[in-house]
Design goal:
With 254 residues, the chain is mostly beta strands. It has 2 domains: 96 residues, Immunoglobulin-like (Sandwich), CATH 2.60.40; 83 residues, Immunoglobulin-like, CATH 2.60.40. The chain contains 1 helix and 13 strands; from the N terminus they run αβββββββββββββ. The strands form 4 sheets. Strands 3, 4, 6 and 7 form a 4-stranded antiparallel sheet that branches. It is elongated and about 115 Å long. The termini are far apart.
Length: 254
Amino acid sequence: MSWAARRRLIIALIIGGVGIAFSTTIFLKTFYEAPSCIDRVQNQDEEGIDCGGSCPYLCTAQEQPPTVLFTKAITNSEGRTDIIASVGNKNSGVAAKNVPYRVQLYSADRVLIKEVTGVLDLPPGATVPIYVPGVLTGKQTITGVFLSIEASSPQWFKMITDSRVIPMVSGTKQSGTVSTPRIETVLANPSAIPLTNVLVIVLVRNDRGDVIAASRTIVATIPAQGQTPATFTWNSAFPSAPTSIEIVPIIPLP
């Protein structure tokens, strides 16, 4: 083979190689998808489809379902019923956002009177109160109330570090009169950023540990490294003497 022929062959091989590399690049960009946690395929180091391993969401086998610790209906004199409940998250280092729940209220003859739904956040290892005020039930007597969460509803994700700023509670005291009780507390913000629209729930218990009253308020602003008072009021007397008061600020998960 002459030198000119070898030269033409080398040039053709170089051009062919460049063409193949270019075509391969275009093909990969068009048709290849890198493994991810949303591709609906168990790949990379996942322990299930898009769960476990380096993916933020846990697989079902790793989860412990939420635990409903108690649910109680408190009927007031206006034909309305307040619902207070508590839900626990046994998962350490794992959280779930916007978990749907359902509350059903029944009469003495097991007839469903009312059903209400909502969502809640479950921080790692936390117990979270739920307060639903003023459910219209008329003159019907509530004899059963049940809160349920479908085991498949929470999307558990890893949350080793909780970055939320939780207000500190101090100076809680009962005031008012027997017929119009009142509870006052102070919320302190330890951070350098103001907290706004903070939901705060209060649970009042008797000497047996039963919740006899509950309420909620929204604190518009707690200034940076400052304090803001919060007040809860009732229009009727507590059914028994209160012996403990629990104040719970609710801060949404990030």
